[in-house]
User: What shape does this take?
Amino acid sequence: MNLLKSGLYRLFDDCCQAVYIPAGRSMITLLSQQFSYIYAQMDDIQKRSLDSCTKDYLERILRIKSEFSNGLQGLAAFSSPKLSLKTVDYALGLIKAILRGTYRYSNGEEQIVLDDGNYVKINFSSSGQQECVWILNLLFYYLIQQKQILFIIEEPESHLFPASQKYITELIALVKNQGHSVVLTTHSPYVLGTLNNLLYAHTVQTRQPQKVNEVISELCWIDFNKFTAGFVKNGMIENCMDDEIHMIQNEKIDEISKVINYDFDRLLDLQEGE
Assistant: This one.
């Protein structure tokens, strides 16, 4: 199998390993303590009934979970020498801001460790923490390893507050900038708005890079020439990039807001006409 993979990589001139992170992750996280047992009890027919992407995601988590026994900081101690301490620390800071703590796998339990040293079992954490924890873990794990990865991430914003949606988007951009590739699906105007800020930061940094870096870390800037965005409508994909300003078209970011605002204006007119 490894020979076949290496042959395919050479054939397509692509050495990236694909890591798929599906939507609906919270149920898997909720059953984290029982899942190893459940999966072990499944026969081959039941395992084959899982789609290959979800099966790969589950098996990947089961395979690497034990490497988080000393938490993310413990994992960071083995980071590649090619990776700067500044990058690692910034990634850890973003993860902490999203999780309101840090992840650890200890004594067979997945835990969110708080600043005071106490912890919450992952199955008792919030739905947002459950949805995002393995996005964060996988991003950080492969960031530390410095292997070339193609991340395919579905709806990273699920169940997260707007601020956390901003931070997780910045973390994805940071990891992408370390030599990885990302395919991202989203319904969130906060994710799209953050992407636009990161694109704009890269555009304006040519004039005042230090001042731009004070607003948005250079680790997260996105080069327009290495980015594209499409809008899916009626089964078709429309390009929604503005080539003039090097950003996602604003009218595509939150189309429903125009409808909501239009309805509000009509109601306001009715009130004023009374």
